[in-house]
Amino acid sequence: MISQQNSVWKGYFSYNSIKDISQSTTTFYGAAENAYFKRNVATNEISTTSTIEGLSGQTITQIYYSEAYKKTIIGHVDGLLVVVNEKDGSMLNVVDIVNKPSVPPNMKKVNHINEYNGKLYIATDFGICVFDLATSEFGDTYFIGSNGSNIQILQTAVSNNTIYAVANGYGLLSASVNNPNLVDYNQWTMTASGNWASVTTTATDVALINLSGQLYKLVGNSPVYLTALNQMSLDARFSESNYVVTTQNYVYVFDSQLNEIFRINNSADSTTHFTCATVLSDKVYIGTQERGVITTTQTNTTAFQNISPNGPDRNRIFAVKSFSNGVWAVYGDHTIYYNPHPLDALSVSRFEEKVGWVSTPYSSLFGAKSIVRIETHPNDEKKVFFSSYHSGLLKFDNNLPSTLYDATNSSLQAYLPLQPTENIRVNGLGFDKSNNLWVTNSLATNPINVLRSNGQWQGYSLSVLQNPAVVSYGRIAVDKNNTKWICSNSAGIIGFNENYNNRCLRMTEGSDSGNLPTSDVRAVAVDNKNKLWIGTAYGLRVLSSVDSFLTQDKLTANSIIILEDGLAQELLYNQFITDIVVDGANNKWIGTAGAGVFYISDDGQKTFNIFTKENSPLPNNTINDIEINKVTGEVFIATESGMVSFRGSATSGTDDLENVVVFPNPVRPEFGGNVAVSGLMDKANVKITDIEGNLVFEAISEGGTVLWDTRNFRGSKVASGVYMVLISAESGEKTKVKKVMIVR
Questions:
Q1: Is residue 4 scored above 60 in pLDDT?
Q2: Average pLDDT in the chain
Q3: CATH 1.10.287.130 at 310-413+422-443, yes or no
Q4: Class of 661-742 per CATH?
Q5: Domain boundaries along the sequence of the chain
Q6: Which of 20, 526, 528, 635 could form a disulfide with 479 if both were Cys (CB 3.0 to 4.6 A apart)?
C-alpha cells in the first residue's frame, strides 16, 4: 500500500531519478529530486513524503536515517536540512546553512552525511558542519581550506578517533575527532595528497577511491592500491558488512576487508544509469537516474525488480489534460523564446485512479519529439491529440498512438520545407463546436490549421500578419462563436473566424492597438460570461465580450484595477502569466513564471488565495500548466519541479442529474477530507439525512459540486451508517437520490 496526501492537496511526484539512499535494519529509504519514500523490506509497505507532507520542494542531494535517534535527515542543494522524527512524524526545517552570510549561495550544497557518536558531520561545498542529533541543532562549522577558507568537502569518515575528509582538489585531510578546536584549520593535516572522490570506513579499514576510479586502503597514512574500477565512482558506502561502490554502469560489492565478492554489470543497458547502491537483507538496492530504485540478488545479478512508488516519468511536467477519471501528462517543452532545442525524446504518461501511472515510451510515438500540449475529443475521451513542437500532431486512439500528422499527410507546414517530417512546430490545440480540431503552426505561412471531424485538413493564413513565418504561436482558445483566439510571441493575441469571410483581428501593445502591456501573449481563456482573459509576459488584460470581434474593427482590452491598502493597483501587474483556467464557478486560476498561482473571483476583484511554494505544497513557483477536472473539481498544477493538485469544489454544472457521483463511498475511518457530491446542475439543492430522515447537512451548489465535511449542523462528525443524499434541481422538476456509507 502507499500512504500519503492530505484532504485538500495531493502530490503526483516522480520517484524515477534517485539522488541518494539510506536504510535501517528493516526499512529502505530512497530520495528522488524533491521527495522521498521508505519501504519496509518485510511487508513491502511504502509511504511517501513530499511537499504535501511539508518538504520544501528544493532539490534533494542526500538522505540519511539514524537508527539510534530514529530520525531521517534530508540535505538539499541550497543547504537546507530537514529532520523528520520517525517516532511522531514531525518535521523540522533547519536553515543554519542556508542562512550562513559568509558563504555564497551557490556553495551550500550538502554532499554527504556521516554519523558518529550522536553527531552528524555534514560535508558541504564550503566545509564541514556539525549537527547534534539529540537536540537537532547545529554546532561548529569547520572551514578547513587554506587559511580557513571555504573548501568543497565531498565525504567524511571516522576511524580510530580520526576524522577524515576528502577535500576536492586538496587531497585527504584528517584530524583527531576528539580535538575540541577543530574549527582551527591548523588542526587539520594532509594525510594523502591527490584527487580523491570518497573516503569510507569499513569494519577494519579506511577505503579511498580517487577520481580515476582506483580503489585504495589506508595503511597508516599511506594509501595502498588494491584494484581499478571500470568507471569513476559515484557513491561508496559501508552497509551490513559490505563495502558497496557504485559507478554509472557497475555496482561492486566487497567484504569488510575490501575483497570483491561480486559485481553487477549494467553496461549493456544504455537507458539506465546507476547513481548509488546498498545491501540490505541479502538484496542489493540500486538507485538509478531513470528507473527509480531497482533490486537484485547476488545469485541473479541480471534480474531487476523496481520498488519505487508509482508516479509520472518525470517531475517536470510541461502540460496536463484531465479526463473523467484521470489525467494525461507530457514532458516535452520549449524555452520562453519558443526554442524546442535540445529536442526531447520523451514518453507520454496517463494516470487513472484505479490503475496508477502508465507510460507510452518514446519508441512507440512515431518519432514525435518535444510534445508540449494535449487535447481530448469532446465526445470521445479515448481520442487524444498531442502537439509536438518539432514533429507535428500525434493522435492516440484507445490509449495507443495511431497517427502522426506532419507536412506529408496534412496541411501542417515545416519550418524548413525540404524537411517535411521535421521542424513542424505545433503548439496550441482547441476543438470548436463542430468537433473540428484547430492547431497553431509556428514559423509557417499558414499559422492556423484545422483537422475537421471528417478527417480533412485545411490551413489558413492570418491577414493581420505581414510576415507570419517569423512568428511563434502558443495556446489557443475557441469561443461560443467559433472564433479562434491565438497567442503569439510578437504579434499579440489574434482572433480568427473562417465563418465570417476569414475575419481576422488582433490586439497588441499600445492604447490604440489593443492596450496589451506587451505583444508577447502566453495564455488565453474564455470565461462563462464570454469575457476573454489574456495573459502576457507583462501582465493581465480582459476583453469585455468576445462578441465584439464580430461587430467591431478595433478591439481594446483593459486591465483589472483592484484596491490594495486603499490604493488602486493593477491586478498581476508585470507578472509573466503562463496559464489561465476558468473553473465551474467562473473563478480564475492564473499561473505565473515565478509567483505561483493566483486564485481569483470571476471578475478579478477578489483574490481568494495566492499559492506559492512558501505557503502551500507547490514545489516550485514557476507554473507550466493548470488543468481542472470538470467532474471532480480537482485542480492540477504542473510546475517546474513536480505536479500537485488542489481538490476544489468548483466544477461545471450539468444539464441534468443523471451522472451524479458521491465520492469517496464508502468513507473509511482513515479518510479525513470532504465527501464530494458532483455531477450536479448549477444551484441544485443537496440535502443529506440519516437513515431515519434526520437532516444533517444542506447546501446549494455553485456549479457542479457540493462538499460535505461529514459533520452535522452542530459541528460533530456523524456516526457510522448509511446516509441519504437527496438532490433536486433549482426548478424542482428534476430529482435524484444517492446513498453514502460512513465507517468510523
A1: no
A2: 94
A3: no
A4: mainly beta
A5: 16-95, 310-413+422-443, 560-648, 661-742
A6: 526
In sequence order, what DSSP letters do the residues of 192-244 get, joined into one string?
E-S-EEEEEE-SS-EEEEETTSEEEEEETTEEEEEEE-SS--SEEEEETTEEE
Max distance between CA atoms of the chain, in angstroms, equals: 91
Q: Which long-range contacts (CB under 8 A, 24 or more apart) does 663-670 make?
A: 663/632, 665/739, 665/740, 665/741, 666/740, 666/741, 666/742, 666/743, 667/710, 667/740, 667/741, 667/742, 667/743, 668/743, 669/743, 669/744
Number of other residues whose CB lies within 10 A of the CB of residue 565: 5
Q: What is the C-alpha separation between 660 and 680, in angstroms, rounded? A: 6
pLDDT digits (tens, 9 = 90+) for 651-697: 666 778 887 888 788 888 877 778 888 888 888 999 999 999 999 99
Beta-sheet strands, E only, within 337-467: 348-352, 356-360, 371-377, 380-388, 392-397, 400-405, 426-431, 437-441, 448-451, 457-460
Q: Where does 16-95 sit in CATH, by number?
A: 2.40.10.480
The residue among 148, 146, 127 whose CA lies nearest residue 138 is 127
Q: Whole-model pTM?
A: 0.88
Query: What is the pLDDT confidence band of residue 633, given thresholds at 50, 70 and 90?
Result: confident
| DSSP secondary structure, 645-699, as one string | EEE-S-----SSSTT-EEESSSB-TT--S-EEEESPPTT-EEEEE-TT--EEEEE
Ordered DSSP codes for 124-170: ESS-EEEEETTTTEEEEEE--SGGG----EEEEEEETTEEEEEETTT
Residue 651's pLDDT is 65
Distance CA 367, CA 487 (A): 27
pLDDT at 416: 80
Mean pLDDT, range 509-537, rounded to an integer: 97
Reduced to 3 states, what is the DSSP secondary structure of residue 51? coil
Q: Is residue 5's pLDDT more than 80? A: no
Comparing CA positions, the residue from 236, 229, 270, 271 lying closest to residue 250 is 229
CA nearest neighbour of 375 among 362, 364, 390, 386:
386
Q: How far apart are CA 348 and CA 730, in angstroms?
A: 42
Strand arrangement of the beta sheet that strand 293-297 belongs to: 274-280, 283-288, 293-297, 300-306
Separation between Cα atoms, residue 468 and residue 1, nearest integer Å: 54
